[in-house]
Amino acid sequence: MNGVLVIDKPARLTSHDVVNRVRRILGQRSVGHLGTLDPLATGVLPLVTGSLTRLAQFYTASEKTYEGVIRFGFATDTYDSEGEATGPAQPVSLTLPQIEEVAARFRGVIEQIPPPFSAKKIQGVPAYKLARKKKDVALEPVRVEIKQFEILAVDEDRVSFRAQASSGTYMRSVAHDMGQQLGCGAHLQSLRRTAVAEFKIADAHTLDQLSEAAAKGSADDLFIHPRRLLPQLPAVTADEPTAAAIRSGRAVNLPELSRARQVKVFYGQRELIAIATRVAGTLFHPKIVLCGADTPFDNLRASSARRF
Questions:
Q1: How far is CA 108 from CA 102, 153, 229, in A?
Q2: Are 167 and 80 within one domain?
Q3: Residue 12 three-state SS
Q4: Which spans in the chain are helix H?
Q5: Which residues participate in catalysis according to the annotation?
Q6: Residue 160 and residue 140: Cα distance in Å, rounded?
Q7: Residue 299 banded pLDDT, cuts 50, 70, 90
Q8: Among 88, 124, 172, 305, which lies 20 to 30 A Cα-Cα from 220?
Q9: What is the dihedral of CA 181, 182, 183, 187, to 10 degrees?
Q10: pLDDT tens across 133-175, in order?
């Protein structure tokens, strides 16, 4: 089974937990994901299966969209509601103008320090392993971009928001830093990811829905149509001789796409067989060949996809 499936990740499961469950449901080893979600968070978790795990490299810098709630009044060591409070709670009653003023400072390109409980590495060791042992975690600031940070509602000590951010942005850090700037502490109470690249929450299915579909032999019906993948790349449908050449790794002429740098090549309506790169003129070389059969390389790509 080769394709892209969007799971609505439940809370309390890690992204790797979801990958393992989908492997068992589909009876397939070659499964990876396109961007980690914290255990607390829910929502869009795109999974790639079979030969399409090779597409993971095209999604490493994908933008994400979130909706969530920040609670003010105390900070936690994990920057979210699953951590331990780092100080006593204090009564807070916030106003929309007050929050808007602080939120404006986080829009655009900012320098952000990741949470100590994160997968960022310090001398090869994940920061969360050091944090669990109560060791000092000194992470370097990372440049990220928050394109949208909309305050939806303010209810005393809780603030609802919607955000669109670059890959690598931690909304937990945004919540923590806002609390520091207001001098009252804050943490991320809840978070739901509503989009990753072209994948939306409307495309998502629960693990139970996938399990039920697999039991009926209709799991394929839940997968994203291949023509919707990588919409920024133009598509071409290859005839049989061209498809055969591409499958064997040979360059081919695609005159109808002479101005494109990279293209998606299909055989028929649903079979994505390659991502090809223009060499010169109308000559394209297959950068990635998606043969439709799982290989050891696919398993390696699925493992690397879990780190994104």
A1: 13, 21, 28
A2: yes
A3: coil
A4: 15-26, 96-103, 127-132, 171-182, 207-215, 240-247, 296-305
A5: 38
A6: 28
A7: very low
A8: 305
A9: -80
A10: 888 888 899 999 999 999 999 999 999 999 999 999 999 999 9
Distance CA 43, CA 249 (A): 37
Could you tell me the CATH number of the domain that includes residue 175? 3.30.2350.10
Mean pLDDT, the chain, rounded, equals 91
Residues 69 and 130 grouped into a single domain: yes
Same domain for 92 and 50 = no
The CATH number that applies at residue 260 is 2.30.130.60
Do residues 117 and 83 make contact, with C-beta atoms less than 8 angstroms apart?
yes
Is the same domain home to 45 and 18? yes
Residue 68 has pLDDT above 70, yes or no: yes
Distance in Å from the first CA to the final CA of the chain: 22
Packing angle, helices 171-182 and 96-103, rounded to 10: 120
Q: Which domain holds residue 250?
A: 230-289
User: For the purposes of burial, counting CB atoms within 10 Å of the CB of 65, is it exposed (0-12), middle (13-18) or buried (19 or more)?
Assistant: buried
The answer to whether residues 171 and 234 belong to one domain is no
- Burial of residue 23 (CB within 10 Å: 0-12, 13-18, 19+) is middle
Token output for 205: 């299915």
